[in-house]
Specification:
The chain is mainly beta. The protein contains two helices and 16 strands. β4 (81-92) and β5 (95-109) form a beta hairpin.
Length: 274
């Protein structure tokens, strides 16, 4: 049971706290999240989509999902509010061993995503909840973890663990120069009760064999300390607005992988060959 529980946590907290763990943003030490340089075009809001994945770790596998929709909500008289959601569920003999869901609401400006709220919920063998409410007028965010509430100062450009993925995809889609290997992407994220900076490096252009067939992708790696025992690699589909095609994370020798199994985006329909 201990091994099973560890594996389930690996599938949920490793794969989905990352989902992918790409984590707007300062680009190549020149572009800061929340600001659009005068010589750059505005960022286009992402196209809504639904994507399915196969999540695998330690011989276990389950289905995961990720979807983006434009909601009917109105925030500060802005109608273009989006909901990005992903999660997975694993059941054995009819019992719910673990269910994880993450949701971000954000609106879209020329500079990209502006988060409104974020929620993480985990149930099953282990229960955990986290909610973040962003108050941009007061420049603060309220973070609620289970029964504990913390208020922290925030500044323009800060993102949450999901809205930053939409920001990254839109930046890569709008600015092809960022696809050059060696480009560094830097993101301020409210992960927990304090903002942190996450860095990523564009590594290569690769063809990835997904469950829907081969896809042209750009490989991006998380930049970590040299002595870190963790590595995160992300493949984003170039021809589909840089939606996640594959994720591989290694921690303490254990590998977690997400692989695209279906995608519906506009007129695009990709399905598993199985």
């Amino acid at each position: 049971m201990t091994l099973l529980r560890h594996t389930l946590c690996l599938l949920a907290t490793t794969a989905l706290s990352v989902l992918v763990a790409m984590s707007g943003a300062r680009l190549q030490a020149a572009e800061t999240a929340g600001q659009t340089p005068a010589d750059q075009p505005p960022l286009i809001a992402p196209t809504p989509y639904e994507a399915g994945y196969q999540a695998r770790a330690r011989g276990l596998s389950t289905d995961a999902y990720r979807n983006l929709v434009q909601t009917a909500d109105n925030v500060d008289n802005i109608d273009n509010v989006y909901q990005l959601r992903h999660g997975l569920s694993l059941r054995v003999l009819g019992a719910n061993l673990i269910t994880v869901a993450e949701t971000s609401h954000f609106y879209w400006l020329d500079s990209g995503a502006v988060p409104v709220s974020y929620a993480f919920e985990q149930s099953g063998l282990r229960r955990r909840q986290e909610r973040i409410s962003f108050d941009w007028d007061a420049q603060r965010a309220t973070v609620t973890r289970d029964d504990r509430e913390t208020v922290t100062d925030i500044s323009d450009g800060l993102l949450d663990n999901l809205s930053f993925t939409a920001q990254m995809s839109s930046q890569l889609h709008a600015r092809p120069a960022l696809l050059t290997p060696g480009t560094t992407l830097e993101y301020p994220i409210l992960d927990g009760t304090e903002p942190e900076i996450q860095q990523y490096r564009v590594t290569a252009r690769e063809t990835v064999d997904t469950l829907t067939g081969p896809l042209d992708t750009v490989l991006i790696e998380r930049i970590r300390e040299p002595d870190s025992d963790r590595s995160t690699r992300i493949w984003l589909a170039v021809e589909h607005e840089f939606v996640l095609a594959r994720l591989e994370q290694i921690e303490d020798g254990d590998t977690t992988e997400l692989l695209l199994s279906s995608l519906t985006m506009g007129d695009t329909r990709l399905q598993s060959a199985e």
